[in-house]
Design a protein that fits this description.
The protein is of the alpha/beta class and 178 residues long. Helices cover 37% and strands 14% of the residues. Strands 1-6-5-2-3-4 form a six-stranded parallel sheet, sandwiched between helices.
Length: 178
C-alpha cells in the first residue's frame, strides 16, 4: 500500500505557496490537469489559477502539467497560460514524471507531483521517486474513465486510512513527509 501513500494531502493545489514549497526544497510542481489544476469540464481555467501560476513564477517555482490527456487537449488548456506540459504521460507508470523532471534538470527531491487521484498521480509519483501531494478534486463530477478509477480508489483510500490518519491540510508547511 505504500506505493499509493501521498507525502501530503492538501485541500487544493492553489493553497501551495512558493514559500512552503521552497521550505521543502521543491523547485518545480508537476501537476495533473483535470480536477487538479482545472475542472475537467471547464478547460479554460480560472482567475484563481492565473494568480497561483503568477505567484509561483514570481517565487521561482516552475510548473509542468503531466497528464494522460493527448497533446491537443492539454495545449488548448495551457497555451494561454504558457505552462509546459508532458502529454500521454502513461500514469501510473513514472514515464511522464521522469521525462518532465529530466527536462527541468532537477533531482527527485526538488520536484513534487500533485494530483487528485491515488491510482494515477500518486502511484506514478511514488514510482518515479518524487514526493507527492494528493488534492481533493476541484469538482465532484468526473469524466467516464475517471469514475472507474474513483471506484477502486475508494478501497485503497480506506486501506490507507487504517494505517495512517488521512486529513487534508491547507498547505504542506510543517506537515507529514515520508
Amino acid at each position: 500500500m505504500a506505493v499509493f501513500e501521498p507525502t501530503w494531502l492538501v485541500t487544493n493545489i492553489f493553497s501551495l505557496t512558493p514559500a512552503s514549497l521552497k521550505q521543502q526544497g521543491i523547485k518545480a510542481v508537476l501537476t495533473d490537469l483535470d480536477n487538479t489544476l482545472m475542472a475537467w469540464n471547464h478547460p479554460e481555467g480560472t482567475a484563481k489559477l492565473n494568480r497561483w501560476l503568477s505567484d509561483l513564477k514570481k517565487g521561482g517555482i516552475q510548473v509542468v502539467v503531466v497528464s494522460n490527456n493527448n497533446a491537443n487537449r492539454i495545449h488548448k488548456a495551457m497555451a494561454k497560460l504558457q505552462v509546459a506540459y508532458v502529454a500521454r504521460a502513461l500514469k501510473p507508470l513514472p514515464v511522464g514524471i521522469t521525462k518532465a523532471r529530466k527536462e527541468l534538470d532537477l533531482k527527485r527531491s526538488e520536484v513534487v507531483m500533485v494530483g487528485d487521484q491515488l491510482l494515477t498521480d500518486i502511484w506514478a509519483g511514488n514510482l518515479a521517486g518524487v514526493r507527492t501531494i494528493l488534492t481533493q478534486p476541484l469538482v465532484e463530477s468526473d469524466a467516464w474513465n475517471t469514475r472507474i478509477n474513483r471506484f477502486f480508489e475508494g478501497f485503497v483510500f480506506k486501506a490507507l486510512a487504517k494505517k495512517r490518519q488521512l486529513n487534508y491540510q491547507e498547505d504542506i508547511h510543517g506537515h507529514h513527509q515520508k
